Amino acid sequence: MPSNAFFDNYLPIAILTVIGFVFVAVSLFMSRIVRPSNMTKEKLTTYECAEVPVGDTRIHFNIQYYMIVIVFLIFDVGILFLYPWAVQLKNLGAPGFFQMVIFIEILIIGLAYAWRKEALEWTQ
After folding, report:
1. Domains of the chain, with CATH numbers?
2. pLDDT means over runs of 10, the chain (124 residues)
3. Membrane-spanning regions, if any (predicted)?
């Protein structure tokens, strides 16, 4: 009987994916059935370290905090790309070096843009 390479390679992955989805669905269903669900006023209030909530819980944060986090994440992910590149630098040769130089230049342009738009300023 001829063997199909596609099914030989990807059938285990498909089976494990289906098993994973079934496991999650069964777990969520069983937890919904077993858990107690008696909602009281105290359970529906906001939890603030055992303190009585004061005022509105919808606090408006300054957009500056989000901008700082986005810039941090961009550069954090950029640094994560530098580690495997540094390990394989000898194998990559000159083309790999220049590709990383271009990547770092793009990050620097992004930093300059964020700096120019005052995304890194703490004061208003």
Report:
1. 5-116 (1.20.58)
2. 75 94 96 86 72 70 79 86 89 91 90 84 66
3. 12-34, 65-85, 97-115
